[in-house]
Amino acid sequence: MAASGQEVLESNQEINQNTEILPNISLGFHIHDSCSDASFSLCGVLSILSGQEDPVPGYTCHQRGHVAGFIGSFPSMTSHEIARLTGIYGYPQISYGLSKTSLNELVEFPFFYHTFLSDDSYFHGIIQLLALFGWSWVGILTSFDENDKMYSEELRREIIRSGSCVEFLELIPEVVSSRDKREQISNKIFKSMANVIIIHSTSSRMTFSLCSYVLKTINNRVLIFSVETSSIQSVYALTIPSTCTAVNGSLMFTIPKGHIPGFKPFLQSLNLSTFPEPSLLHSVWRNAFHCEPKPTEGIMEYCTGHETLSDFPASKYDVDHFQFTYTLYNMVYAMAHALHNMYITKSQLGESLKLEPQPWQLNQFLKRVHFKAPDGHEIFFDDKGRASVHYDIVQFFQFPNGTSTTIHVGSFNPSAPRDKQLIVNQTAIFWKTVFNQARNSHILFIIELSFSSQVPHSVCTESCAPGHRKVLDREKPVCCFDCIPCSEGEYSNTTDAENCMKCPEDQWPNEKKDKCNPKVIEFLSYGEPLGIALSSVSILLSIITALILGIFIKYRNTPLVKANNLNLSYVLLVSLTLSFLCALMFIGRPGAVSCLLRQSAFGIIFSTAVSSVLAKTVTVVIAFSATKPSSKLSKWVGTRVSSYLILLCTSGEIVICILWLLISPPYPDYDTQSDTGKMILQCNEGSTFAFYLVIGYMGFLALLSFIVAFLVRKLPDSFNEAQFITFSMLVFCSVWVSFIPAYLSIKGKYMVVVELFAILASSAGLLGCIFIPKCYIVLFRPDLNTREHLIEK
């Protein structure tokens, strides 16, 4: 078995001491350092397969044991090359590092297994994190490495596909010798509006390039490190300079850490006496203790031999929790479980265990391996060779003394249901805020930083508040838009609404236009000043008319009252009284009964009044003409003509009203269009033609009365009311002719007001012109109310 690291030693010892896994079979290993180089990796594989230090392709001279499979390596590009070579011989290979999507091709790599993938499933973690905090305007920094550029371009496409936008994708060179070039890159990032920047790089040197000149200008931005970038820092134990304050508070997608039972004392027990010969441990000691394991002429001192990892604080070298070490530990167990299952199957089939198994035979058992890791997480591979893993999200903090720490704030599990993939503890995150800043040579430097719980914004345009809608500009990205208030009668109750919705007819948007409120129902009520005034005038005029009727009844035997056709006067006065009272049906909340009766009742009653006026005029004409010798009209003198005339003329109006009520009767209705924010409760006339026919018929009777009265205006005053009737009909016609254009030009309750004014004015015109002069004579000039005076006149 080929792998790398001290964790292989621990897991190998555990497996060999465990009687439940591979009993009577010892599991060995061979560690080869690939140096993150494809050529070194291939040489290592060939060396392991041939059993010689100098690789000999196609030849093996292993004295003991057989190669079962390979674990490694960490960089994806070396894993890719190893998979091409080991696949030829059918050896299964498990990569414990990050693998590119192309490695999922089962046809090209049928024996390759992944632990962590760098593909669209991982992209969703970053995209969901952006969506969670409402970050729709971001930037991406990456290196000039071809794989990094390809990854970043794909990430940008996925972000755009999700509805967010990428303001810039900037390639950061590892080394920039030109100061102008450094300032050009720094100023471009500084002037950007993106407050969230995603950093992706598999280059171990890029972090130093970022800290040296790029991140100095963006201390107040939120940085998100990809799994690759944070993993590079972890694997190569790269220390971020303490002056690089921009990284403070950054979010990192990382490989989950895990505890390996018994590994801590194992590591702390290691010293140079354990491995006196040159090994990986010697390299670790040089980096950790800055000493040489063996005497050399180098500049470092010779190690004492008593150095152990227990001398290091946990913040600098954590021996309790591991990332790739833990993954590698689990993959060794995965290989061991697969070997165990294969040997059990061979035993059950009666095959000799001494026969050398073919490497490709292990593949089908590795596909079906399923066991629990020490932390309880189940380890297995899907049909594409991907292990069931998840990613941690941590927040990185570095202190002035050079130490650093990470706080676990969430996780991302690509294999979980969509709504449960991303889990973030938002209360555990501390966001950076600028506390003090200074500018030097056109570059902004953050002197002090503070942290708060307020989530920073990173949008091209702030979200459109409810009551507005988004209007996109074709020349700008979809994240940049204008917010336009909703039009009259429309509302939006969500942020970033693309369209406003119309309120129901009985509702109207509030001032903010974020919801619809019931419209105010308006009608001419008795409680408002206009309603009070009109109802008071109506009642007052009806009382005056009733008093005049009482006067005529009281003085019915006087010559003046007798001379004016007493019965017709009674009919006219009663009709006018009812006409004034009809006005009250137009005031108040319209109902089914009031709408049905008010126009018809007024039309019939007022037609009776006008018919009475016409009968008075015709009676005067007949009475005067009958006095001539041999007049044929003498037989028509009396009350029958006037009664028939009133019945005939009123019957026409009654027929019109009955047909109206039968065919298209009036009904209560709401006018929702005339007034914004209000709903006018009114009587819909049902048939507009019938309504104007009723008015027109009254006008016809009035015009006929006016013509007859005008023709007989020169008769003796004693018997003639023609002048007063002429004036009354002139008032009536003037009022109703003015009524029509006024009625058509207004809406709402003021239509009722105009009609009420016409009713009261025309009725008052009849009352005033015909009866007021007579009442004056009866009450105040009794000397004129004598037969002698009338004959004299």
Automatic annotation (TrEMBL):
One GO cellular component term noted in the UniProt record for this chain: plasma membrane
CDD domains, sorted: 7tmC_V2R_pheromone
Instruction: Report if keyword Cytoplasm is assigned.
Output: no
Q: Where are the transmembrane segments?
A: 530-553, 565-588, 600-624, 644-663, 689-712, 724-744, 750-772
Molecular functions per Gene Ontology: G protein-coupled receptor activity
Keyword list, A-Z? Cell membrane, G-protein coupled receptor, Glycoprotein, Membrane, Receptor, Signal, Transducer, Transmembrane, Transmembrane helix
This protein's record includes keyword Transmembrane: yes
UniProt protein name:
Vomeronasal type-2 receptor 26-like
Q: Which organism is it from?
A: Geotrypetes seraphini
